[in-house]
């Protein structure tokens, strides 16, 4: 689609197209310029005594233009430009107008049946094993886009830089966002949310996004400091708004989600990966997730900081979405429970009996990125799986152990990158 005819879902305009349309209109263009002056820098203060009225009049007029309901597509070209147009109007709430919208991105369709992805991925590579983490890695290798972008981000996250040292975090984060924005959830969700029942599998799952470069630091930074940086960036701010909306918990729904859409919650969660508040598994012994930050130095703002962490640590919607994905639990079956039934208990209980069987063919470092033809898993693969190097003990937090584990896990990626 091109130019003025470009629309997004629900008949809404693409914000870039809406902006171009407004700029070329004699009546709309001056109001858009006024709006940008209102939002930029010190806002209405720079425009003189009557600035507040000018700003409010401009916003009121723009409410009838395509800018009012425009949206952006996650991962689109010029995404930041698109989001800047969206937030210019939405931030006008500072001038006394309440313009409440969910978030800038197209909503995830309610029919997104993510629980069928496991069987779909397995069928593509001809697998009959019950180790979905292994199946997901091999399925990604078979898909050209998934394999290419996965190799790309791993290479970016382990390649040393003269200026950035052993890890160029900005380059790593950009490649991660590209992977999760452009590769279908069929592959990304299976790689990130596949169920594990032992620490070796869980550690490899935790290392999926190469945390040592993508977000980990020796000392955990303050969560509120990270959130302030996030909210000052159009992309991060938009991803955070999407996550808060689509993963909003509720005690009044059987699913535990206000929107009752597990698929949308997981899409929103992966949208945060590659940002300054990148979440990941907290350890290799549970499926608990969170951002790499702390509230230890929050002082009088400890409650605000804990509230931020609670979006991950105490979020039943997010927890149930991850558990349901691992259990192949259809959201329809969860929402059809009788009123008052405790779906969360059902999900938590069932995950103990439906997770990966130990010894059924663990994912090996050798085959994690190697393209493979669809085939049944043979005895040689099982032997390689059985010889997988064990992960560090979850209680061994020594830097040496963690560094050794990272080096051993990333070695095959580095060798593959050098061959490209």
UniProtKB/TrEMBL annotation:
Pfam families, per the entry: GDNF
Topology within the bilayer: Lipid-anchor; GPI-anchor
Gene3D superfamilies xrefs: GDNF binding domain
Domain of life, per lineage: Eukaryota
GO BP annotations, alphabetical order: cell surface receptor protein tyrosine kinase signaling pathway; nervous system development
Molecular function per GO: signaling receptor activity
Localization: Cell membrane
Annotated InterPro entries: GDNF/GAS1 (IPR016017), GDNF_alpha (IPR037193), GDNF_rcpt (IPR003438)
GO cellular component: external side of plasma membrane; receptor complex
Family statement: Belongs to the GDNFR family.
Protein name according to UniProt: GDNF family receptor alpha-4-like
Species of the source: Sinocyclocheilus anshuiensis
């Amino acid at each position: 689609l091109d130019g003025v005819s470009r629309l997004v879902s629900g008949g809404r305009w693409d914000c870039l197209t809406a902006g171009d349309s407004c700029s070329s209109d004699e009546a709309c263009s001056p109001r858009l310029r006024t709006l940008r002056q209102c939002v930029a820098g010190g806002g209405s203060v720079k425009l003189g005594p009557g600035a507040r009225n000018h700003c409010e009049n401009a916003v009121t007029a723009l409410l009838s233009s395509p800018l009012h309901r425009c949206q952006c597509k996650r991962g689109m070209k010029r995404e930041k430009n698109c989001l800047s147009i969206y937030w210019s109007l939405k931030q006008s709430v500072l001038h006394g107008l309440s313009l409440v919208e969910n978030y800038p991105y197209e909503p995830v369709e309610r029919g997104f049946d993510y629980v069928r992805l496991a069987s779909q991925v397995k069928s593509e590579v001809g697998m009959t094993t019950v180790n979905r983490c292994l199946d997901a890695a091999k399925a990604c290798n078979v898909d050209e886009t998934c394999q290419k972008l996965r190799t790309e981000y791993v290479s970016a996250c382990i390649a040393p830089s003269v200026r950035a040292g052993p890890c160029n975090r900005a380059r790593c984060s950009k490649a991660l966002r590209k992977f999760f924005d452009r590769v279908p959830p069929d592959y990304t969700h299976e790689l990130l949310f596949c169920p594990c029942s032992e620490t070796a599998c869980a550690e490899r799952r935790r290392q999926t996004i190469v945390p040592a470069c993508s977000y980990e630091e020796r000392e955990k930074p303050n969560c509120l400091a990270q959130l302030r940086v996030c909210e000052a960036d159009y992309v991060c701010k938009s991803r955070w708004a999407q996550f808060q909306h689509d993963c909003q918990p509720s005690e009044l729904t059987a699913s535990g989600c206000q929107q009752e859409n597990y698929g949308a919650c997981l899409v929103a969660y992966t949208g945060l990966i590659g940002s300054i508040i990148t979440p990941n598994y907290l350890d290799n012994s549970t499926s608990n997730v969170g951002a790499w930050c702390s509230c230890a130095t929050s002082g009088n703002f400890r409650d605000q900081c804990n509230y931020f962490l609670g979006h991950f640590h105490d979020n039943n919607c997010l927890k149930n979405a991850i558990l349901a994905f691992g259990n192949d639990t259809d959201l329809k079956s969860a929402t059809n429970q009788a009123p008052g039934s405790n779906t969360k208990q059902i999900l938590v209980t069932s995950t103990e009996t439906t997770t990966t069987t130990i010894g059924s063919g663990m994912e090996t470092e050798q085959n994690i990125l190697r393209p493979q033809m669809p085939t049944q898993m043979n005895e040689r693969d099982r032997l390689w799986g059985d010889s997988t190097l064990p992960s560090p003990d979850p209680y061994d937090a020594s830097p040496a152990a963690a560094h050794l584990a990272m080096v051993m896990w990333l070695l095959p990626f580095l060798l593959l990158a050098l061959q490209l």
